Amino acid sequence: WGHSNFQTLRKIGKKIAGSPHSYLLIIDEVSRLNPSCMRTIQDLYEASEGRLSMVLAGTPLFKNRMERWKDKNNAVGMAELYSRIGLWAALNPPVAAELKDVAVANGVTDDAAKQIARQHKDYRTLTTAVKKQKFVDNL
Predict the structure, then answer these.
(1) Contacts of 66 by beta carbon, 8 Å cutoff, 6+ apart
(2) Could you tell me the pTM of the whole model?
(3) CA 82 – CA 101 distance, rounded (Å)
(4) Which of 50, 137, 57, 51 is nearest to 89 (CA)?
(5) 53 pairs with which residues across the strands?
(6) Distance between CA atoms of 8 and 1, rounded to whole angstroms?
(7) Can you state the angle between helices 96-105 and 110-119, rounded to 10 degrees?
(8) Would you call 12 exposed, middle or buried from its count of C-beta atoms within 10 A (0-12, 13-18, 19+)?
(9) CA 29 – CA 72 distance, rounded (Å)
(10) In a 10 Å sphere around its CB, with 0-12 CB exposed, 13-18 middle and 19+ buried, how is residue 113 labelled?
(11) How confident is the model over 58-82, as pLDDT tens digits?
């Protein structure tokens, strides 16, 4: 491409800024990112000139790290980025009925979905259980 990552992100941001549409970027596993990656996300946000909203999803560790980086001046730009986060929301784990509905929506029979929902407490393990159940059902 002949551009640095920074230049590429600025181009993407300018393209978004020039669009008549607004966009939503969802970044999962944000707890794994370091300050440099977070600054890159901030650069993209700023280049979009208000046309890009973001959902940064991660574990509670993410908020703890951001607070630590903000309070210590060793992570340049983190105080500014922290101040731009409009809402910190903790999500409750899914209840059995939600897990069952997700399993059924992914092709698992109602009876099998009920059993799976009783045995699993989160979407990550549910995903594996649904895949296993579908494999067994197709034997």
Answers:
(1) 38, 78, 81, 82, 85
(2) 0.67
(3) 36
(4) 57
(5) 24
(6) 9
(7) 140
(8) middle
(9) 23
(10) buried
(11) 888 889 988 888 887 666 778 888 8
